[in-house]
């Protein structure tokens, strides 16, 4: 009977997904949603068709994707929403990033003078105070057109009635099986009774989560931050060895931050400010390469890739030193993003060679696991780029069996000690040290590119620091190389985050190019699937969207 529900979806829906998956197709004129999962994109389109705007649709898609890809994100996590409304030319950057509990302290992950990575990656201490529900509710109330309860309907349906496990989720369960087995509440949902992983196509339901979502839909976001759900979350975290309290939840607030703006090849680039490093690093790289004619140098040519890698290293070296929560540290964005600084850094790039690490301001880039990006546009051209996360796959692995909430491990995005890499190999300094009620530095890069005040590209991705470079290269593939959305996303990528001293390349970068880069001194390492991007390109009024084949999502239009 539950399968019927999926089968009863209208035929146009399947056609839209098939069209949206075909390379380069301009598939819609009324609106479009690109996300990491076809069912989540369909949830967003459903909300558009019910009269919602891009903000409503983005919130619905986020809630739905966090059910069907519960390894990536969830109401136990947090995120960033960038929205642009062309009629008023207003842009907003909403920060609903998780926050350290009041009892957090700088050395909470240090034992006998050394950072202990396990403490910030799994279990109670890894958990920061979730912002997802507060943020989405704020966005819908302030900028949406529908009631939160309506926007939540598709996610509630998916959690209650179940859905077939997709390839990405199945991979994450299989990969994390041993770790999941140590957390009984999560194991009860994701593993069979004999401890084997649930697999592709098996039906998965989250009845407790469906109930929690229904309570929030009925009573509003305060149901999550005070009352029975909050009491349960505090108890769950404490049982798992964590330190957050009811007051940490009750005092959580999403924040609207000043949108970060840049210019690139005559377009305006709107992106996320700190506590994400994503927007700043993206704009810094764009500024460094702005005077180089990439189209003439050639897409994927050794010279273009070398230039990009060098620009990435400079920007990531600065990321490590000066970025942190702007409520706690001053991030010198005006200096970092000034044309003069970009020129200084560009002049330090040699066409012939890369340099020793110490030449730049400072792990192994990880594969995409946690985090999910979605891009949305509605019929009026309102655009939303939204990235949400519980950090690594299934976050802290702590799940409340009573509420079905999987809690994040976002505390690992802090620098546990200066220079000690986190799970993504990223190093940080005092600017990103743990402090009570501070938000950990992020790489999430929701971005909207405008031409003459109209959105022409809505883009972002998942994959830790790969988010920044994957978003960057997709943007360049559209703006400099004029590729359609599918081709821009599918093109092979590179990534260099300064530390470790490695230039990661996807398998599609050919041998001759790798040799040419190696001759310039880059230590080449092949990595499959570097990040997962969702993008919508607006082209002469038509909407051309695509989801990253590396993670198996879909763009759906109507
Ligand atoms: N948790 C990954 C990020 O925010 O960058």
Q: Concise description?
A:
The chain has 21 helices and 20 strands.
What this model shows, in words?
- This protein is an alpha+beta fold and 558 residues long.
- The chain folds into two domains: 3-75 and 89-99 and 115-254 and 391-412, no CATH class; 257-367 and 444-540, Serum Albumin, Chain A, Domain 1, CATH 1.10.246.
- The chain contains 21 helices and 20 strands.
- The protein is globular and about 60 Å long.
- The structure holds glycine (GLY).
- Glycine binds at residues 371, 389, 391, 413, 442-444, 464.
- Glycine is lined by residues 371, 389, 391, 413, 442-444, 464.
Gyration radius, to the nearest Å? 22 Å
Structural class: alpha+beta
Distance between the termini: 28 Å
- The count of DSSP E runs of length 2 or more, i.e. the number of strands, is 20
Please outline the major beta sheet.
7 strands, antiparallel
Please render the helix and strand layout as text.
Blueprint: H1 2-7, H2 11-21, E1 32-35, H3 38-49, H4 54-68, E2 78-85, E3 90-96, E4 110-111, E5 114-115, H5 117-121, H6 132-143, H7 148-161, E6 163-164, H8 167-181, H9 184-190, E7 203-204, H10 207-219, H11 222-225, H12 228-239, H13 246-250, E8 255-257, E9 260-264, E10 267-271, H14 278-289, H15 294-297, H16 302-322, H17 333-336, H18 339-347, E11 372-377, E12 383-389, E13 447-451, E14 454-462, H19 466-479, H20 485-490, E15 494-495, E16 503-505, H21 511-519, E17 524-526, E18 532-539, E19 542-547, E20 554-557
Parallel strand pairs: 16-17
Antiparallel strand pairs: 1-11, 1-20, 2-3, 2-12, 3-8, 4-5, 6-7, 9-10, 10-13, 11-12, 13-14, 14-18, 15-16, 18-19
The structure holds glycine.
């Amino acid at each position: 009977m539950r399968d019927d529900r999926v089968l009863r979806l209208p035929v146009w829906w399947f056609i839209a997904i098939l069209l949206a998956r075909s390379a380069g197709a301009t598939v819609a004129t009324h609106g479009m949603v690109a996300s990491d999962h076809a069912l989540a994109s369909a949830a967003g389109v459903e909300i558009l068709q019910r009269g919602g705007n891009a903000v409503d649709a983005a919130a619905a898609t986020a809630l739905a994707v966090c059910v069907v890809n519960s390894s990536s994100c969830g109401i136990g996590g947090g995120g960033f929403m960038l929205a642009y409304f062309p009629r008023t030319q207003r842009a907003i950057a909403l920060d609903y990033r998780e926050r350290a509990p009041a009892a957090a302290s700088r050395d909470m992950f240090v034992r006998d003078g050394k950072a202990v990575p396990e403490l910030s990656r799994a279990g109670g201490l890894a958990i920061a105070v979730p912002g997802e529900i507060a943020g989405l509710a704020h966005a819908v109330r302030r900028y949406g057109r529908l009631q939160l309860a309506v926007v939540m309907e598709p996610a509630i349906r998916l959690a209650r009635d179940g859905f077939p496990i997709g390839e990405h989720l199945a991979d994450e369960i299989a990969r994390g099986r041993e770790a999941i087995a140590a957390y009984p509440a999560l194991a009860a949902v994701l593993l069979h009774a004999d401890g084997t992983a649930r697999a592709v196509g098996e039906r998965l339901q989250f009845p407790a989560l469906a109930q929690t979502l229904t309570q929030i839909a009925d009573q509003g976001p305060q149901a999550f931050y005070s009352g029975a759900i909050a009491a349960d979350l505090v108890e769950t975290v404490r049982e798992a060895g964590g330190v957050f309290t009811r007051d940490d939840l009750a005092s959580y607030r999403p924040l609207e931050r000043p949108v970060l703006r840049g210019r690139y090849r005559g377009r305006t680039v709107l992106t996320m400010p700190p506590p994400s490093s994503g927007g700043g690093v993206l704009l810094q790289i764009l500024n460094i390469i702005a005077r180089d004619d990439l189209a003439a140098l050639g897409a994927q040519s050794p010279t273009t890739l070398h230039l990009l890698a060098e620009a990435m290293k400079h920007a990531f070296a600065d990321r490590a030193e000066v970025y942190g929560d702007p409520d706690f540290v001053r991030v010198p964005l005006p200096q970092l993003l000034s044309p003069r600084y970009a020129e200084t850094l560009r002049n330090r790039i040699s066409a012939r060679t890369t340099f020793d690490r110490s030449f730049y301001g400072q792990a192994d880039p990880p594969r995409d696991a946690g985090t999910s990006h979605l891009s949305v546009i509605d019929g009026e051209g309102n655009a939303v780029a939204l990235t949400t996360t519980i950090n690594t796959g299934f976050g802290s692995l702590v799940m409340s069996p009573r509420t079905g909430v999987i809690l994040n491990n976002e505390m690992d995005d802090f620098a546990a000690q200066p220079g000690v890499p986190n799970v993504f190999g990223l190093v940080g300094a005092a600017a990103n040290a743990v402090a009570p009620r501070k938000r950990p530095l992020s790489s999430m890069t929701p971005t909207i590119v405008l031409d003459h005040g109209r959105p022409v590209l809505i883009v972002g991705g998942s994959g830790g620091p790969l988010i920044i470079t994957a978003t960057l290269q997709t943007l360049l593939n559209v703006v400099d190389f004029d590729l359609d959305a599918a081709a821009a996303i599918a093109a092979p990528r590179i990534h260099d985050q300064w530390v470790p001293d490695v230039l990661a390349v996807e398998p599609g970068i050919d041998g001759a190019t790798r040799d040419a880069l190696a001759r310039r001194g880059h230590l080449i390492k092949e990595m499959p699937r570097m990040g997962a991007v969702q993008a919508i390109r607006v082209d002469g009024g038509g909407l051309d969207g695509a989801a990253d084949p590396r993670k198996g999502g879909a763009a759906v239009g109507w």
